[in-house]
Amino acid sequence: MKTSDSIPVKYRKDYKPSAYLIHETKLDFDLFDDHSIVTARLKLQANPNADPSDSLVLDGEELKLLEIFINGQKLESAQYETDSEQLTVWLDKVHNLNYQQNSFELMTKVRIYPNTNTSLEGLYLSNGKFCTQCEAEGFRKITYYSDRPDVMSIFTVRIEAAQQKYPHLLSNGNQTEHGKLANGRHYAIWHDPFRKPSYLFALCAGNYDLLEDHFKTQSGRKIKLEIYVDKGKLEQCHHAMASLKKAMAWDEEVFGLEYDLDIYMVVAVGDFNMGAMENKGLNIFNTKYVLAHSDTATDQDFEDVEAVIAHEYFHNWTGNRVTCRDWFQLSLKEGLTVFRDQQFTADQTDHAVKRIEDVKVIRSHQFAEDAGPMAHPIRPDSYIEMNNFYTVTVYNKGAEIIRMYHTLLGAGGFRHGMDLYFERHDGQAVTCEDFVCAMEDANEYDLKQFRRWYSQAGTPELTVTSEYDELHRKLTLHVKQTCPDTPGQSNKQPFHIPLKLGLLDKEGKDLPLQLAANPEQLTGDILHITQLEQSFEFTEIAQQPVLSLLRNFSAPVRLHYDYNDHELAFLFAHDSDPFNQWEAGQRLFARVIWQLCAEQEAGEVMQFPLHLVNAVQNLLSSESLDGRFKALALTLPDIKALIEEVERVNLDHLIVAHNFLKKELACQLEMDWLVHYQANHHVGKFQQDKTSIAQRAFAGVCLSYLVALEKPKAYELAVSQLLNSNNMTDAETGLKLLMHSNYEDKQQLADDFYQKWQNEDLVVNKWFMSQATDPSDPTIERVETLIEHPAFDLKNPNKVRAVVGAFAGANLAQFHRKDGQGYVFLAEQIKRLYSVNPQTAARLTGAFNRWKKFDDERQRLMCEQLQGILQLPDLSKDVYEIASKALG
Ligand code: ARG
Ligand code: ZN
């Protein structure tokens, strides 16, 4: 068993610049099916900004050192040492080496085994093709190097491999040379003119299908665009290509940022731990975020592909041209780039819909992380395994923090800050503090207090009360802020919270906002919350208004305000802020759900509140609202988000209440659901314009209510949608609804679906997922058989996520079975996986993180599994960190 003292913790406060810099990096890859030889020639120099050192220490893991030379001198065993993590060269023992003054060349030759590398980190062979994943610390599995983002170097890479099997040899930058060799081998040489850290290195070698196109930049340069995919997938690449061109144009238009190399390549691979990776000029993607055709991908998949293509492209400036000094600064590039991709998607689709979707992620996942054992600030202070910190906090809460600058400074002020950030830091590895300074200086805006968003973890809570004084026509708001303690942090200091608000008159119109005193506390419709307790007096308020608070979710906080049903229904019908309109509906639903839980608790019969019918009916028949908005507004609050609203949850009651409400709404409005379903569901020619996408989303939600009726007629509609659709959006909706229902022939439908799609991996994953998330009872047995299915592969993270991840993360009823079998199943999968793929195993382990929310018996059962995991022999530090902190 790993103990806490055998596992090193890294701290942000310990940062020291690297003792040696690497000006040039020349890599030689000799690729073979069963091993590879990597020769590195590094031009090193003592770092004038670091403490001098007589030893050169380089990172290296799972490398077999074959040769080592300095300035052409072969080193003897007394001059260096290797262990499982490092190479140390005693430079003072190397003859005639003036290592403090002059630069020198280190040459190492190592052997590695990409064919047995199942961690999908470093260089690995997957599906007959070589590829790399180096972020965060994977480059050290390729060669000995100073594998840290503040060591930046010019890379030249030579790749050699068998020509027939690996006709494409790719790396970063531009190809400068290629040619044929003896024995059927060939080579290519790539040179990247931009200095970069090792985590942005990439290599791909294989036999791909290639889609080619180009983009003309605003300054008139012609950029070659290339997408490499598995043979036969070419017709699924056009959407990714179109998305790339849109992203390139958008970044020029909105941020004035132009692409810098002459070629931009994207390679799609089936075995990938994450979504994608922004390697300079050579992005590597999970196939899930490249391939999209309407036969096999849903409207949501199309949107996701567009967003991830854009995200990786945007990293070229926010991440690559300006990179991170150390990994504690990860949100510097990720929070910023997520914000940029969110804005891009909003511009391509619908701002309100996109905002709601993003906030749902925050509420269901980030709030949970912030309240659990892994809570960390967006700029963490410590970690055991960096890969565990690619989190919703660093990414999505990080993006919320960036969004708040945009809210506080306006689009123009934000742009000025960005311009100054690039002007100051292009070509550098910097910190979050440097970003704050750029925003501050460009706008002469004091962000001293705002900086606490980087250092304090936990979700702040705002409690608001109000009084209306009719005589003096004034409204007083009292606002209190608190932030719960999180591991290692207590007594938080107040945050600077932009609270966007509106006061609605009887007609639902916004009243003008004006403060009686301290006008600097209000900018437009943004109230600046800066203290633990504050009161604000609004004047000239002629009638008692309805409050619309935290419009557009202007800060990542929980808001408490004692709305009554009437006010919520009013906001649901009238709020001009579409986010809060949606929010009011969700609050209405949530109140009902909690009320239904209370009734069960008291042993009473559950009562359906009829006032909901009206509100829902109005929304359904609204002519002005978009179909996607309607779909979101008609979807009941996510159970995961609801769990985060309470201290401890009675999960059984919550699920019963949720189902009861869904079924009641289905019954009460049966005719409406049917009418709207029929009006929005089309079987004719497939179209993918905004209107058609919106109609499919709306029709899908209508169908979900119909299926909740559990009537043969409704099942028939779903079956017909599944079998007769000409697109995956409709097919998947039908499949999912049926798999989660009690429809008696569902197994037959599942089998037929598999028969039809067995050669499309991404569709097979949908098939896996729809079954793994079936909340009904024999699912645990079903899931046991799914992992034995020939299409399942423990080595493929997409498959693991589709079955095990979906079961543990999105099937609350079955994962949290009272008999604990769900927990046992998950722990067993973690046991099978932790040495195969530590990163993916650690992600799965996170499903236990919220154990404290549940009843005593479930808590006991979850802890038992966590303890078992901690007893595993040679436990990876990835899983160790998650499991030990969970029990913490
Ligand atoms: N930088 C990549 C992205 O956000 C993610 C890489 C994550 N890799 C990892 N091993 N955790 O686009
Ligand atoms: Zn990213």
Automatic annotation (TrEMBL):
Catalytic activity reported: Release of an N-terminal amino acid, Xaa-|-Yaa- from a peptide, amide or arylamide. Xaa is preferably Ala, but may be most amino acids including Pro (slow action). When a terminal hydrophobic residue is followed by a prolyl residue, the two may be released as an intact Xaa-Pro dipeptide
Record key words, sorted: Aminopeptidase, Hydrolase, Metal-binding, Metalloprotease, Protease, Zinc
EC numbers: 3.4.11.2
Gene Ontology biological process: proteolysis
Domain Peptidase M1 alanyl aminopeptidase Ig-like fold: 458-562
GO molecular function terms noted in the UniProt entry: alanyl aminopeptidase activity; metallopeptidase activity; zinc ion binding
Record-linked InterPro entries: Aminopeptidase_N-like_N, Aminopeptidase_N-like_N_sf, PepN_Ig-like_sf, Peptidase_M1, Peptidase_M1_dom, Peptidase_M1_pepN, Peptidase_M1_pepN_C, Peptidase_M1_pepN_C_sf
Location of the Aminopeptidase N-like N-terminal domain: 26-200
Domain Peptidase M1 alanyl aminopeptidase C-terminal: 565-887
Domain Peptidase M1 membrane alanine aminopeptidase: 240-453
Cofactors (names): Zn(2+)
Reported function: Aminopeptidase N is involved in the degradation of intracellular peptides generated by protein breakdown during normal growth as well as in response to nutrient starvation.
Assigned protein family: Belongs to the peptidase M1 family.
Protein name (record): Aminopeptidase N
Organism the protein comes from: Kangiella koreensis (strain DSM 16069 / JCM 12317 / KCTC 12182 / SW-125)
